[in-house]
Design brief:
The structure is a single chain. By secondary structure, the protein is α/β, with parallel strands linked by helices. It contains 19 helices and 15 strands. Strands 12-2-1-13-15-14 form a 6-stranded mixed sheet, sandwiched between helices. A 5-stranded mixed sheet has the order 7-6-5-8-9, with helices on both faces. The N and C termini lie close together (about 10 Å).
């Protein structure tokens, strides 16, 4: 969701508009390939040993196709062996040779292999033996292993970050590198948060996610839980982090359905880092459309129940005012029609994501009326609020003042006086989910790079 706020010295307007989400990171902890020599024994990391065995039985493949859907380059790796075709070749013959190359493998692996490579292969040759092998897609695992931002150094949105163009062998090697990092992260989670990983396994055991994930989680030692146990884990993992009153509704709607509960895995992973510099990748929200409604229901809609700690804490204007600005109360004047604080009423309406028009005199505390809701939205869902202002000279002061008052580093401004590197840094922060509040000059609305940055 993007919130547009335009204002002059006397008023501001808040209009709730289209969803904005962006992308998602690498935090780098986990088991490393370090052997410690002691006399007389050689100690080793069993997780890495299992990984090496797993990869020795896994064929990584990648295809390059033209706009007509014709395969013009193929790359595959299996252990120390490699397979490559490029340039002019008989595609049917080459794909059957690829099938022979993959025959010794127990499974196949690739980045976006389930939605890209395998459908292309089936369109060319429908009877390949590799279609019977379990498949693992590193694209699906990345936001779960690395929900922080950016979620992996070699992955941007749904694509691998390449050093060269159109080299499927290099892409197959990159996919193996990404998978190795994912394995190490999940192995660390297996030690520190085994229940969370068991819940993720339960949610992902679906034909849509590929049949190779069962062997992957089994090799990690992840427990295969029952529906009742999955429910208990889900409730425990989200305790205090979501609306307790709405939680049962979400469970009953999504958890029993094998296809729908996939979205719950991504929600649980993201909620573990919510409120920081993280954003769910656009492809996740587009492919698993339930993710956004689930998070909205659990985090954005106050239930009003006195026993719900999350809603009482997160949706209470005074609590958030104290948290971000250090004030105990809103300004008493100007007053609303009922004699209460007009500033508080505006903030409460904006925090509830209701469209509104507010008119305040100079010095009436207008800035806080959109700044506080923007910061709370970012904490709840990682959402971006956009403030449209013609006063470019004051934008930097607004950003600096907000940072000084709240200690929040996630405010930025985009206007014509920025240098190209400064502009690029601001837009990258928007794309990566680092920005909670963005001040924008009106002419930026016509800019292509700005519109692309806020597209999701």
């Amino acid at each position: 969701m993007v919130t547009w706020v335009g204002y002059t010295t006397l008023c501001f307007v808040s209009v709730i508009s289209v969803p904005l989400w962006l992308q998602l990171p690498n935090s780098g902890y986990g088991y490393r390939r370090v052997a410690i020599l002691s006399i007389p024994h050689l100690l080793y990391n069993p997780g890495v040993a299992n990984l090496d065995t797993f990869l020795a039985q896994t064929a990584a493949i990648d295809l390059e196709v033209n706009e007509a859907g014709e395969v013009y380059a193929i790359g595959a790796l299996l252990g120390e062996a490699s397979f490559s075709r490029s340039g002019r070749f008989d595609s049917v013959r080459a794909l059957r040779e690829l099938d022979q190359f993959c025959a010794p493998a127990e499974r196949i692996l690739g980045h976006n292999i389930l939605r890209h490579d395998l459908p292309l292969l089936r369109g060319q040759v429908s009877d390949l033996g590799l279609f019977q092998k379990p498949a693992i897609d590193t694209l699906y695992l990345s936001p779960l292993a690395f929900p922080e931002n950016p979620y992996h150094r070699l992955v941007k949105d749904y694509k691998l970050v390449r050093d060269s163009l159109n080299d499927p062998l290099a892409d197959a090697r990159l996919a193996l590198t990404v998978f190795r990092d994912q394995w190490e992260r999940f192995a660390a989670l297996q030690q520190s948060q085994p229940d969370r990983l068991a819940f993720i396994r339960y949610c992902l055991e679906s034909d849509r996610m590929g049949s190779g994930l069962g062997a992957f989680f089994a090799a990690l030692g992840t427990e295969q839980v029952t529906a009742a146990r999955a429910y208990a884990i889900f409730r425990e993992q989200l305790s205090g982090e979501v609306c307790a009153a709405r939680f049962p509704e979400v469970v009953m709607r999504y958890l029993p359905d094998r296809e729908q509960r996939i979205a719950l895995a991504y929600c649980v992973a993201w909620l573990g880092v919510a409120g920081g510099n993280s954003v769910i990748p656009p492809w996740v929200r587009l492919q698993f459309e339930s993710v956004a409604p689930i998070l909205t229901q659990l985090r954005d809609r106050p239930c009003g129940e006195p026993g719900c700690d999350y809603c009482r804490r997160t949706h209470h204007p005074e609590t958030q005012l104290k948290r971000f600005f250090g004030f105990d109360a809103f300004r008493a004047k100007p007053m609303d029609k009922d004699g209460g604080s007009l500033q508080r009423r505006i903030v409460a309406e904006a925090m509830a994501d209701r469209p509104l028009l507010a008119i305040l005199p100079t010095g009436g505390g207008k800035s806080l009326c959109y700044q506080l809701p923007a910061l709370t939205r970012y904490q709840r869902r990682g959402l971006l609020t956009i403030v449209i202002s013609p006063l470019q000279a004051l934008m930097k002061d607004q950003v600096d003042n907000l940072r000084n008052k709240t200690g929040a580093p996630n405010a930025a401004a985009l206007y014509g006086m920025l240098t190209p590197p400064e502009r690029g840094e601001v837009l990258e922060g928007v794309r990566m989910g680092d920005t909670a509040l963005l001040y924008v000059a009106p002419e930026q609305l016509r800019n292509r790079s700005f519109n692309e940055a806020i597209r999701y």
